Each structure stands twice: as C-alpha cells, then as structure tokens.
Amino acid sequence: TYAPVPPGPAAAALLQALGLPDAPRDAPTSRPVPPVMWRLFRRRDHQEARAGPRRTPPGANLRPCHVEGLGVPGNIVRHVPDRGAAARPPEPSSAAGQCPEWTVVFDLSAVEPAERPSQARLELRFAAAEATAGGWELSVAPAGASPGPVLLRQAVPTLGTPVRAELLGAAWARNASTPRSLRLTLALRPRAPAYCARLSEASLLLVTLDPRLCHPLTRPRR
Amino acid sequence: EAEPAVGGSSGGACRARRLYVSFREVGWHRWVIAPRGFLANYCQGKCALPAAMSEPGGAPALNHAVLRALMHAAAPGAAGLPCCVPARLSPISVLFFDNSDNVVLRHYEDMVVDECGCR
Q: Are strands B15-17 and B37-39 parallel, antiparallel or unpaired?
C-alpha cells in the first residue's frame, strides 16, 4: 500500500522533527553536490547499514553524533557556498605586483542557536599561472570597512590541491555561538617574487552538534 | 509502503514489520539528495501470553509486561495488554539541500526500528 503524506500538520511536525523549519523548495539546480559531502554521507551510510539489525548493535562501532570522516563530534555537517563570489570583479589570469585581496561571505542563518560548532573549515581553490619556489602564505582577516587584524596566517606549499584552514579557535572563538554570517578578507602572497594566484572557489565546511538531538550512547541492556 | 498486517487487527505476535519510507512518495525527492528512502519499519502484534514472555534475541522480557499479561489473562477487564513498541532503534543520515543552498549532511538517531518488544 502506498500512502502519500498529506500536506499539513503531520508533514510540518515531521519537518520540525527533522530540524527543518519548512520544506526546502526545489533543489538549486546550479549546485552540484561537493565530493566531500558524498564521501561523508557514504561513510556514515555504510556504517549505519553495517550496524543495522541482526548485526553488531549500533552502540558497538558507530558513535552517535560523531563525524567519523572528520574526527570531530557533531550531527550536522553543512557545506556553505561563498556568497561573495558573485560580487567579485573578474581577475586577470595572472598579475604581478601587489596581489589582490578577496572578500568571502558565508550565510550561516540556517544554523540554530542551540547548535555548537565543532569545526569550521575554510576550503579554497586557487588558480596560479606558475608554481613559485617558496610557496605562498594565506592570511585571513575579518572583512569590513577598516581592515581588521589578521586572524590566521598559514603557509601554502602548493596550489595544486584545495587549501584548507581551520577557523575555529582563530577567526571564531570555540565556545562562541554561530554568527548569522561570516565575512572574511583573504590574501595569498607568494614568498618569492612571482605572479599572483586567482581565487577560483571558496566554501566553508561547518560541523555542529545539536545537544538536543544527541543522547549519550545507549548502554547495551544487561 | 507497509507490509500488510496479517491475521486480523493485531497481526499475530508482537514483532517488527516492514515499512519503507520513500522520499519521492512524500514529495521530498527534489531536495533530499540521498538516500531515496529508508526502511523505517514499525511494531505491531499482540503482547498476550506467551508472546509477552520473550524478547527478540532471547533477552528476558520486562517483568512488568509479564505481570500485565498475566493480569489480563486472569481478569481481562482489569488492565489492558502490554504494548508492542520499538525495543531497539538505529540512526540514519540524510544528505539534502536546505533553503540557504547549503548541502547538509544530518544524522538522525532512532529512525529505524530494528526490534520490537512488549512494554
């Protein structure tokens, strides 16, 4: 028997239970699913399938509210796209001299106040005209009218792979609640004179734990 | 999509029955990326004696449930039978788009009924 869910209070209650204030509208067609999110889903799904009925009880090898693929506590992982990309002027493929700065903006309004962040990982992809001997240095500062203090500096040996920078504890106090949006100014400078690189993609991988939904591991019954 | 209950309204002894939730059927397939659905299952069945005496997997039944089943056998009008409810549940994870165009992986505890018991 098939039973389509009637819209109305039942569906609203189920959405509420799923932590969704309302059913998201149709999928944003332009948004491909990032590979990191598929990897995390498949890893979790595989574990849950293995921990299912008539096998080892879930508590034995699957820690509830822990993101195994990232090694941090959490029950919600969000891949947040950079809103600032649309407003950035097109850059020359390679420029010498003073390298540009970029402003990235992450809309975090979907995060509920009760959620505790356990990881906020900046993921950046750059395009560079050429490799540079000494590598690069990434700096991250709060964006605003007057340039804020640099919150994070990180050596970047190569631009061939995504550049990842953990913001929690640097650009974001660990026990602070999640801001409604995060605006940062990024700069990438070559250590030796070289052409500047171009920022081709920025995103934020945010892991949070909602303590209301994560009960402690159920003890196997004696 | 549910397994039809057999043998009248209670459908035999208390046990987990198949219930597949298809996100397409509930109209969520456009924003739920994966899975396409999942086996939620549900509990149904009688908790009269002797069913109330044994739990799945050989675990001892709850004394209170046995007492209630005994009471019901001795004096049906006194107290109802114990209820057939989930005794062990599993989580699932759902990958979906939210209204801010984020791709979200959310872990939900207690979504799949693995075992039922009389309580």
A: unpaired
List beta partners, residue A153.
A139
Least CA distance to A15: which residue of chain B? B28
Residue type, position A12, single letter: A
Which residue among A52, A110, A215 places its CB closest to the CB of B109?
A215
pLDDT digits (tens, 9 = 90+) for A37-61: 999 999 877 666 655 544 444 444 5
Q: Are B62 and B117 in contact (CB under 8 A)?
A: yes
pLDDT tens, position by position, B93-116: 999 998 888 999 999 889 999 999
Nearest neighbour of A33 by CB, restricted to B33, B93, B114: B33
d(CA A39, CA A46): 11
Question: Would you state the structure tokens that stand for residue B58, as one six-digit string?
Answer: 């050989």
Which among A164, A178, A36 is positioned nearest to B105, based on CA atoms?
Answer: A36
Eight-state DSSP code of residue B58? G
* A107 interfacial to chain B (CB closer than 8 Å): yes
Which residues of chain A make contact with B107, given a CB cutoff of 8 A?
44, 64-65, 75-76
